[in-house]
Amino acid sequence: MTPLRLAARAVAITFALLTCAYAVLAYDPFTLTQVIRFGLFPGLGPFARAHAALHVAAQAAALLSIAPALRGGPGRHLARAYAAAAAIGSAALLWRPLLPGLGSDLRALTVAFGALVPVAWLAAIDLRVWACAPAAGAPDGALDAGARCVRSALAAGALVFLAFSALAIERGARSPAVLGYALALHAMCAVAIAAALLLATSPRARWAQLAANASLFALAVASVARRALLAIAFPGLAGAPLAAAAGGVLALALVGITVRLTGGEGAPPLVLLARPLALPRGWPRALRVGVPLAASVAIAAAGARYDWSFLLQQSAAFGAWVLTLAALLTEAPPELDRQARLAEAARAARRRMALIAAALAAAGAGRAFASAAAVSDGIAGWLARDPALRLLAPAPASAAPAQDFFALLSEHTNLAPGSAGPPLEVELGGSTPRATAGKKPDVIVLVVDSLRRDYLPPYAPPAAAFAPAVAAFARDAVVFRNAFTRYGGTGLSEPSIWVGGMMPHAQYVTPFAPMNALDKLLRAEGFRELVSVDEILDVVLPPSPDRVRLDAAVANKDYALCRTLGELRERLEGLDRARPAFAYTQPQDQHVSRIEREGASVPPGATFPPGFHPPVAARVQRWDACFGEFVRWLDASGRGADAIVVLTSDHGDSLGEEGRWGHAYTLYPEIVRVPLLVRFPAAWRPRVRCRPEALAFTADLAPTLYALLGHPVAERPPFGAPLCALDAEPPPRHEGPQLLASSYGPVYGLLDRGGTRLFVADAVGYSEEVFSLGEGPPERVAVTGGERAAAERAIAERIRRIEEAYGVGKR
Hints:
Layout: H1 3-27, H2 29-37, H3 44-49, H4 51-65, H5 67-71, H6 76-95, H7 106-114, H8 117-131, H9 145-170, H10 176-201, H11 206-229, H12 240-262, H13 269-274, H14 285-302, H15 311-329, H16 338-374, H17 379-385, H18 387-392, H19 403-411, E1 442-447, H20 468-475, E2 478-479, E3 483-484, H21 490-499, H22 517-524, E4 528-532, H23 535-540, E5 547-550, H24 561-573, E6 581-585, H25 592-597, H26 614-636, E7 643-648, E8 654-655, E9 661-662, H27 669-672, E10 676-679, E11 688-690, E12 696-697, H28 701-708, E13 724-726, E14 738-741, E15 747-752, E16 757-762, E17 767-772, E18 779-780, H29 785-806
Parallel strand pairs: 1-6, 1-7, 3-12, 4-5, 4-6
Antiparallel strand pairs: 2-10, 7-10, 8-9, 11-13, 14-15, 15-16, 16-17, 17-18
Helix pairs in contact: 1-4, 1-7, 4-6, 6-8, 8-12, 9-10, 9-14, 9-15, 10-11, 10-16, 11-12, 14-15, 20-26, 24-26
């Protein structure tokens, strides 16, 4: 295969894999909404729209790669059938494009599998050509293939362990017991690879050898695809068929390319299969091994701050294993006398089997010993810092939940459109709200995306002195010190504020308007709305002639509090005060993706106290000044004395705790705890009664506004309850354990003991954890079997209650 044809084949395979990936994103309700429809990755939309034309180009490249077979000879029938099928497929797609209309249904899954068929077909053509080629005699390299298997696998395991353990230590991992645990797991993996490769080199027939080696590669790819890439869209066992198909097809593609590159060469198949993945054999050995290993570690290190559920980092760790092993397997064998090599091969076979048996026993004992010490002492922190260990490590034996519980979580997460039932008319006051007597205050709700509570002065005095305006605001506000979000991500956290409670885990129930309790209140009371309508609110909010769009010409990812408050000020100055105004915005100043996009910069000369991440603190400092200026204007204009002003967040962010960064599928304490500050009109302050130390949720904001505007509300799970009351004590709220959830995957939490204990069940990472929460840093605590069973029952029961309340499955 010439370099041109090899490049053409790479184009065809890449197009097929991109089509498969797009279909997988469309099949999952969350990624369909958040990634495709909301344009998280700008290139997806153009790819879908141009898919038919790209299909024509990709198939032209595929035909170029099999041009010799098309002209005649072995494989001509398969090649010509492929050409006909490609022509028909291109014509069909040009007539009726497929990708733009994909949704969360069987058609998307069919496309995902179907996209892999051309790759397997091209590989079949290659194998047919190779099968008809004369086989060369086995070179001397075949004689020491077994020894090379053991030596290369053990060396690869050692190098990957050393490189990624060094990365974990550099990130702050500090547990020798876990280091022993990691060594044991890497050793077991290396020995298992060596044993499997030995078995794959024992047959003499090249077809059997090739099939055995390809099967090993397919199994490895399928395992990683299932564990690291498909765990979110297909939790549980649902992703196994697609992972197996992807692994098998990629193995066939590698086999096909390999045999076309090597012709009839009779080198060991495992060496042939590794050759396309390794750097040229003429390079120095240190470079051939070191460059891919260093690149993999660098990718894992650089990707930590914007990785979702460790996908990129675990993929980098897998790449380190594959590329390091490939480089070692393709090292040139030493020059020895043929007879001496045959004799040594026979003796080495016995030694290798004894070595494997001893190594397996030692590694197993080491794992058992290390596991007992590591599970209770730092393994979670090490797993967050070491993607290679995370790739290999099973769930700790002392914390492994029942698989049927994880299956239940997956079954009730990201419900497909239509399966969540008809929209429920959410009436927080028991009936459709009607206008009440009296003048209404303005309401201004500022939901700073990803803002952590411990970066604001009321929650971190006196360290967070870089936000003086918030500190001044808090002196006249009620500071809720035990506030949480119901959802660990914007996708469902923002809608929950408008609903005033929890919802079925779907993206999204449509039409959403019947569930939008806050919007019903605003309409009934005649509020003029000024709202930054992001992609989520575009679905959540019904059209309204009384709504003015803030940030109308700005992309959601570029919402900035300073700019929005400037526009809001101009809008308010132009409004009369006969009607109350309601303002809502969710600026992205603190969002991890924006900070990374801006280069995680800090103004020259700016310094912050230890314990604060400077780029995050710098952005709090920046918008704090604008916030202070806006509040001063609000008070000077007279509006501030007659306004409810809320400062909160939809969720927090991990900023290096145990090596974690960002937010997505996790429910760690720093993500679910949020700031919540509410300043009431001056005339109301002597009359307002709140419980600032009691458990509070951002989803309680809508019920609170209902109650304060004269619409009595009682707690009615899964909906919220008023945080405050006028001229009366607020009703008790949130008795018993409270449910939390990830917005995007089957990860659920149970908040108990008045918000001081958090149990997290993660059906993506297959783990369960418990945290003790207080004023200081959260502490990880051991959980008993009885507590775990009770928490699992409580989570399942609360999920069932939500779905029953909304009539899920009933139409």
